[in-house]
Write a structure and sequence with these properties.
Blueprint (H helix, E strand, L loop, with lengths): L1 E6 L2 E6 L2 H16 L9 H4 L1 H7 L19 H12 L6 H7 L4 H12 L16 H12 L11 H4 L18 H13 L9 H8 L2 H12 L10
Antiparallel strand pairs: 1-2
Helix pairs in contact: 1-3, 1-5, 4-5, 4-6, 7-11, 9-10, 9-11
């Protein structure tokens, strides 16, 4: 089985055998089955399948492909759980984990993760962009490109890309590998949301060089002190 990840303007193929994927799903579902139906279970027990990939207390997985959950807006986290449950986001392991859970159960988990206070990892010291690429990435993130019909990332994700309201997440603090993978998923339809699906349209207008520039620039930005936990 192949998973395609858009990384730095190139399609990277992650290959997993059906057996390996099945083992991962069985592992997560085995842990989940012990807690999913215990509505009064301690939340730390409930989230064991989550932190197995997303890191202790949801601080992010070590490989760059499992994003931070801690401190994300509760509305955003709940919407993503619903998207996995209903197939709008296509990742088999997450769908198998989310499908058995009621909306109320998912909402409680989303609220729990949104309230966790754990430090952000420092951005990588290695710079992946040239001066010209960094300038282009900053432009796309903070100003957009009217000629290409691209709004600034900040116009939705908030000034400083720290998030906005209960449903729009911050982008700072996310690794380049994850950001690239999500833009690729928006482009191919593997990630969707309820209409209007603005991100799908934006991702399709981005050229590969621009993806590399904006993803690299965002991933190199430090998390503002105002939201540091």
């Amino acid at each position: 089985m192949h998973f395609y990840v858009f990384n730095g303007g190139f399609m990277r193929v992650l290959c997993f055998s059906h057996r390996m994927l099945g083992m991962w799903i069985a592992l997560c579902l085995g842990a989940w089955g012990q807690t999913a139906h215990a509505q009064n279970a301690d939340m730390a027990e409930r989230i064991k399948p989550c932190v197995a990939c997303h890191g202790d207390m949801g601080r992010a997985g070590p490989d760059g492909y499992y994003p931070r959950l801690a401190g994300k807006p509760a509305g955003y986290l709940f919407n993503q759980m619903q998207n996995f449950s209903h197939g709008r986001r296509r990742y088999l392991m997450m769908r198998r984990i989310m499908e058995p859970l009621s909306a109320d159960y998912q909402r409680e988990m989303a609220q729990y993760f949104s309230q966790l206070q754990v430090p952000y990892a420092a951005p990588s010291a290695a710079k992946s962009l040239s001066a010209e690429q960094a300038l282009r990435g900053r432009q796309l993130a903070t100003q957009g490109d009217a000629a290409l019909g691209l709004p600034a990332c900040e116009s939705c994700h908030g000034q400083g890309l720290t998030g906005q309201g209960m449903n729009v997440p911050g982008l700072v603090g996310l690794p380049a590998a994850y950001l690239s993978a999500q833009l690729s998923a928006w482009r191919t339809g593997d990630r969707q949301t309820q209409a209007p699906d603005c991100m799908a349209e934006i991702a399709k207008r981005l050229q590969p060089d621009d993806v590399h520039a904006v993803v690299g620039w965002i991933s190199e930005q430090p998390v503002p002190k105002s939201i540091e936990n």
